[in-house]
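Hallway conversation turned thread

IA: we were arguing at lunch whether anyone had actually written out DUF4232 domain-containing protein end to end. Turns out nobody had. So, for the record, here is the sequence (159 residues) and right after it the structure tokens. Reply here if something looks off.
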Amino acid sequence: MGLGLLVAGTAFAQTRPVPPVVSRKPVPARPVASDTCSSGDLELRFGRIDPGAGNRYVPLTFTNISGAPCVVSGHPGVALLDADGAALAVTVRHVDGPGAVATLKTGGSARSVLHWTVVEPGCVSPAGLRATPPDGGTGVTLPLPEGRVCGGVDVTPIG
């Protein structure tokens, strides 16, 4: 009789439920407004326009020129300009989702890529392209010597 109780007790001990292990990973803090790169913290530069099969790509680099780290996220503002500097009515599409939050150390950079075609319907002949950081503010203007943008402009998020 003692042996039966021992076996029954052992079986009970082996099937007793074990509470699940809960991971206690810290949740990363979301950037606060004071962490966000302002226009004055950033230098914006266009890379070389890369042509290929009727498409044009140009990287837009955001470099932190302030003395402290800051964060940037989202899509930059983009406008095509006429010869007088006025914005043209052109579709600007934010592509590739919202993007990630990029923390830029002093001197650090992140980029967005602008894309358009020169072969679709709905072409305009802008004199320039202006880009601004996601927070707005001061931007940079790139002359477009090629002078043809068709079907609008695609803009990737900064990352």
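OS: looked through it. Helices lie at 2-15.
IA: good, adding that to the notes. Confidence is low (pLDDT under 50) at residues 1-33.
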